[in-house]
Each structure stands twice: as C-alpha cells, then as structure tokens.
Amino acid sequence: FVPRPFRPRQPCACVAARSPMRQEAFEAETAPSAADPLLAINEHDSLGSRGVPGEAKRPDRRLPKLRLTSLDAFRGLTIAIMILVDDAGSAYPIIDHVPWNGIHLADFVMPFFLFIVGAAVTLSFRKFSILKLGDRGDLTQKAIWRSVKLFMWGIFLQGSMMPRMKYDVTDAYLVAGLNLASFRVPGILQRIAFAYLVCCLIELYIPHSVPNRGDEDAYGPDPGVVELLSQYRLHWMACMSFLIAYIAIMVRTYVPSYQYTKASITGPVTYSVDCNIRGSFGPECNACGYWDRTVLTYSHMYNTPTYAGLSACRTTLPPQWCSVPFDPEGIVASLGTVPVVYIGIHYGRILTRVRSSSARIGHFLCIASLNTAIGLVLKVLWVDFNKNIWSPSYLFFTCGCAGFVFTFYYIVYDHDGMMPEEIKRQFAWLNRPYVWMGMNALLIFVFGASDLLTVLLQSVYYQKVEHNIVDEIYNNTLVSWSGPQVGLLLYTLGKIGFWFAAAYYLHRKKYYWKL
After folding, report:
1. pTM of the entire predicted model
2. Which of 107, 131, 326, 333 has its CB surrounded by the most CB atoms within 10 Å?
3. What are the residues facing 261 on neighbouring strands?
4. Which of 78, 69, 49, 82 is nearest to 123 (CA)?
5. Alpha-carbon distance values, 465 to 124, 456, 462, 472, 484 (Å)
6. By C-alpha distance, which of 192, 110, 88 is closest to 388?
7. DSSP-derived 3-state class of residue 430
C-alpha cells in the first residue's frame, strides 16, 4: 500500500461566477474588520463578553451570528406570561389586566413586546449593513412589507376573522368569516406594526451625529451614557414628538356627551353619557375613547371594555358608560407606543456601539433606572399607571422594568464575571424553554397565545360542537376533578408546557417561523 501524495484542493471554477450580492456577502464573511464591535464573536453569541476587542485571541472569520440569546429568553418569557394571563387571568384577578388605574402582571406584556421589537430592529439593520445586502430603500421596503403582514395577521387573529367558538343559552357553535361591517381594526399586532414602521423610518431617514473616525476605529472609544444619547438626539426628538402629540390630544381634546345604542333580546337599548369636558383621564370621558368612537365607530372597536370590572360597574345599577365599548389598543393610545420601541432600539444600539460587556450593563441599568424613576414621578405628580390609555407614567415605568429584565438575561447568557458560573448555569438551564419559545415567538403567538390551535382542535368534534378534545380535557377532566379555578390553572400550565415541548422540537429541527 502506497499512500497517494496530498494535493491541495484547487479553487472551484464556480467562485468566479458568483453574483455581485453573493460576492459581497462572501467578502464580508472572509475578510472581517477588527474595528467592528460585532465581528469579534465567539461560539456562544456574537454579542457576548468574550468578543471584546483587545483580547489575545485568534480572529474568527465566520459570518457573525447576530442573534442574542438573552433577547430570545426575554421574548419567550413574555410569550409564556401572555398565555398565562390570557387563559388564567379570569380566575386569578391579581395577574389579569387592571380594570383602569394600576398595574398587574398582564399589563407588562404589551410594553415588553414593543421593547423587544425595538432591540431586534437595531440588530437586524446591523446585519444588513455588515453583509451589504441592501441600501436604505431596500430596508424601507422590507420594513413596510413586514408591517403590512403584521397588521393583516392582527386583523385575522383579533378582527373576528379567525374561527371561534360561540356559546348561547342552549347550544355552542363555531363561527368563521370577516364581517366588513363589524370587524375590529385595532389589536396587538396592529399596534406593533405601527410602532415598528415608524421607528424603522426614524432610524433610516433621520441623520445622527456619530463621528466618522475612518476604518481604523469605526466608532472610537466606548461612548458614555449621555454621549450615546446625544449622538442620536434628533432620533429622540422625533420619537418623543409622538408622546408630545399624545399628551396634547389627551389634554386639549374637548369630549362632548355621547350615546351608544346596543341590541338586546327585548330590543335596542340606548346608553347616554354626559361629558362636555377636556383633559379627563377617567374611563368615560377621555380623548382616547372619543377619537376611537369618531374615527373607528363602535362597530370596529373592542366591545368588552376592561373598565367593566371596576367596582362601580358591578353594582345593581351601574353607570351607563360601563356598557360602552372601549378599545385598549386604540388610535391615540398607540401614539405612546413609539417611544417604547425606540427605547428598545437604544438598547440594541448599546449592544452594537459599546464593546465592553461591563460597560453595556452600566448603560442598561442607567437607562432602566431613569425610565423607572420618570414613571414613578409622573404617577405621583400627574396621572396613575394606566394601560388602557397608555399613560406616560405607565409608558416609562414598564420600559424601565423591561430594561431590568433584559439586563438580567444579558448577565445570565452573554456576560462573564458578574454572577458565579454555577448559578449562571442553573439559571440558564431553567430558562432554556423560554429561549426555545423566543426563537419561534411569532408562531407560538399565532397558534398558542391567540388560541388558533385551540380553535382548530375544537372544530373537530363528535355529534355536538362541545364534544371536542379541548372541552373534554378541560370541562370533563380538569374542572370536574379539581374545580373551575384550579382546573383552569392546570389547563393553562399544561398549555404552556405543550408549547415548551413544541418549541424545543422546532428548535431541534432548525425551523424558525419569521415574517
């Protein structure tokens, strides 16, 4: 046996036939610049602490994986909380939405989603910048198209288009179809689509004042908290103008008296509400409800207001405004969601602009503490926390809480030295299901949190609609065995466990559903 001499592999002739876009991506992969803070990556994550420039380490020439494990964990936690509060909140009011003023666990879900969307925007735009996969016009088209798809998914899930169960006194039946005369326009994904698009346009078209230091050092030394904020001051002015517009509308809009006619078994019932006031933040005469009633009309609003759970509305003779529709994702309140997304964008900017992992944590904690303090001050001096009208105190306080939660996950997954390794491993192990869910958050939101899978399972029944697998498990097993309150909690926890397992399976198969 005589071994053949080694011959180096010749370059493939197909290399020369690469398209210009693939050639640019290949050059970005094989010739990274050490000055870019995202290109010093490690096997765990591209934005982890081990990638700090200056460490004696062989350069990694792989294409950077711009995915942050801590952001996935935060996203998955938010999805799990949403399923918990939506399904079990009716039996446990302490975690359900507050009827009006105040804040419960359910009231953190929407701002957490918006914050996460903002952080992902920065990383997404940075990816396209590194790979040179498109210019500003291309990114604008992608942002618009993604917003349109989010909005249409929202109409399908919350606009009465999705199949759903209906119950009356004697029977249960399935309903499907989109009634153009009465479908709900606002919703969770619709609000995210609006805020996402606005912030993308701000990020793409408003100039910043970051100094251009050449190729040797793209950004120079790590900026301080105030310096980084000031370099994007025009962006902050643009996003905060939406908050200023919201405050002006809430304070200056004159709300007249109004009537609402509702159909009933005995005939139409008319409810009259006396207002004739400006600047009200109460449930019956605020500007959010006025503009929704004027623009959307009652037919396209949420018909079951959360303030119906107030003690005043649960008396034998409740005020007439307790029966009037009110949409918690309405037009005016959505203006205040733009700053939430942009605060998330700033957190993503810290990840891309600040090289030192410890310095990043300092930035995170400073911004989170500032937002929390502003929210508490506004609560004491002006208006209480209120998710229904998206009060400024609620906006800043929940943004601060989102910053603290994200910082915790960043320390667990993407930072070395601040927490003992054994404790970090334990936390990381316990939060693995959230990471899996966060990687397929949109799929789980559509099929799990919005109950599309539940309705599809209910659509397969035996003889009667209520004889389906979901109702059999819930009513005839869990509720009959443990009672309605504990049974609902067990059903909800089982549902979350099912989606943990589904997310793990999809992760093993490398399947991730994206828009």
Report:
1. 0.83
2. 333
3. 270
4. 69
5. 45, 12, 7, 11, 21
6. 110
7. helix
C-alpha to C-alpha distance for 114 and 128, rounded to whole angstroms: 21
> From CA 436, how far away is CA 511, in angstroms rounded?
11
* DSSP structural state of residue 83: H
Could you tell me the maximum CA-CA distance found in the chain, to the nearest angstrom? 101
Q: From residue 470, how far is each of 112, 460, 461, 477 by CA, in Å? A: 30, 10, 10, 10
What are the pLDDT digits (tens) for 445-476? 988 877 778 877 777 777 777 777 887 888 77
Sole residue written with tokens 């899930």: 157
Per-position b or e across 131-154, b if 16+ CB within 10 A of its CB: beeeeeeebbebbeebbeebbebb
Structure-token match 């053949």, residue found: 4
**Are the CB atoms for 338 and 303 separated by under 8 Å?**
no
**Angstrom distance (rounded) from CA 91 to CA 77:** 21
pLDDT in tens, 176-215: 667 777 788 899 999 999 999 999 999 988 888 776 544 3
Tokens 């899996």 identify what position? Answer: 436
CA 405, 406, 411, 414: dihedral to nearest 10 degrees?
160
Indicate the average pLDDT of the chain. 81
Distance CA 336, CA 469 (A): 42
The answer to which of 224-233, 326-335, 391-400, 477-486 has the lowest mean pLDDT is 477-486
Distances (CA, A) of 442 to 437, 452, 456, 507, 509: 9, 12, 18, 14, 17
Structure-token pair, residue 162: 């999705």
Query: What is the Cα–Cα distance from 113 to 196, expressed in whole angstroms?
Result: 11
Strand partners, 364: none
CB atoms within 10 A of CB 427: 17
- Report the C-alpha gap between 74 and 86 in whole angstroms: 18
**Region of residue 221 (phi > 0: left; psi between -120 and 50: alpha; otherwise: beta):** beta
- Kindly state the tokens that stand for 463: 């003889």
d(CA 297, CA 320): 18
CB-based burial, 161-193: b 16+ in 10 Å, e otherwise? bbeebeeeeeebeeeeeeeeeebbbbbbbbbbb
Residue type, 459: S
In this structure, the number of other CB atoms found within 10 A of the CB of residue 425 comes to 12
Q: In terms of residues, how long is the chain?
A: 515
Which alpha helices (H) appear in 253-356, and where do they start and end? 287-295, 331-335, 337-353
423, two tokens: 């404790």
How far, in Å, are 169, 297, 346, 426 from residue 469 at the CA level?
A: 22, 38, 46, 36
d(CA 453, CA 472): 16
The whole-angstrom separation of Cα 434 and Cα 440 is: 10
